[in-house]
Design a protein that fits this description.
It holds the Pfam family Tetraspanin. One of its GO terms (cellular component) is plasmodesma. One of its GO terms (biological process) is auxin-activated signaling pathway. Keywords: Membrane, Transmembrane, Transmembrane helix. The chain is built from eleven helices and two strands. It has a two-stranded antiparallel ribbon with strand order 1-2. The protein is elongated. The two termini are 23 Å apart. The C terminus is likely disordered.
């Protein structure tokens, strides 16, 4: 039984080591990205740090566990178990926090994919799309040329289906809000009505036809960005929950493969 536990522990630790190396390598950009662990939202870099920390912690713990297993070092094995327990507690806390943060938001897509910042949690509004953070996200969206993709969809797809394929970021950042009354002329130009705007909403005044301006500073753009970040974070939560269950199994196997003092002393004396 003990030998079988050690074999399972070795195999699962090798798998954990491989997973942690993929996470660290992908997030740090030292390897070519294989899988997107932090979602597809453009410029969602704030999600990278907790995942990078998780990957580094698991990488260190896996190395400690393998050394403890092959060298039969009892104290090192105990250190491994405590480190894994702390990682599991931290990951569980992050999952709970993530679920609380992403619990608010639009449940169903409205016509034209129009969203409001008031639909989202205060934490997301204060820490993701506040003035300080939005400046960097704004620049990133411009460099990513998000609206170029939107323009291509708008020019080739019929109006009946175009809103089904555009992303929330494209919908919020690349066109004026419908209540403003702007008339569509082409993919790069929306004409203001001769009678004036039908609404003096802040977003209506903010809109510009310039390619690097459009509605990137609009509240609708921030809301659309939060929709995509929230959806990606929910996917990340699903991955984290599965990974948490996996780590609990690894911890349990690690506990059962813990060498007794007599075996450890016998191995160390050889």
């Amino acid at each position: 039984m003990a030998r079988m536990s050690c074999c399972f522990f070795c195999v699962m630790n090798m798998m954990t080591l491989l997973i942690s190396m993929i996470i660290v390598g992908q997030i740090s950009k030292t390897w070519r990205p294989v899988i997107i662990m932090y979602g597809s939202a453009p410029c969602a870099g704030f999600l990278k740090m907790p995942i990078l920390s998780l990957g580094i912690s698991i990488l260190i713990a896996s190395v400690i566990g393998l050394i403890a297993l092959f060298c039969r070092v009892l104290c090192l094995h105990r250190v491994y178990l405590w480190v894994m327990l702390l990682i599991i507690i931290a990951l569980f806390s992050f999952i709970v926090f993530s679920l609380l943060v992403t619990s608010k938001g639009p449940r169903e897509e409205s016509s034209g994919r129009e969203y409001s910042l008031r639909q989202f949690s205060g934490w997301l509004r204060r820490n993701v799309v506040d003035v300080k953070n939005w400046f960097g996200i704004n620049n990133c969206l411009v460099k990513a040329d998000v609206c170029n993709s939107f323009g291509k969809k708008l020019s080739v797809l019929p109006a009946a289906v175009v809103w089904e394929v555009v992303s929330p970021v494209e919908s919020g950042c690349c066109k004026p809000p419908p209540q403003c009354g702007y008339k569509f002329k082409n993919v790069s130009y929306w004409e203001e009505p001769k009678s004036g705007l039908t609404s003096m909403d802040v977003d209506c005044v903010t809109w510009k036809n310039e390619e690097d301006t459009v509605c990137y500073s609009c509240e609708s753009c921030k809301a659309g960005y939060l929709v995509q970040v929230r959806d990606d974070w929910l996917i990340l939560n699903a991955f984290n929950i599965c990974f948490l269950i996996y780590l609990l199994i690894v911890l349990a196997i690690g506990f059962f493969s813990l060498p007794n003092p007599s075996e450890a002393n016998k191995f160390s004396s050889v």
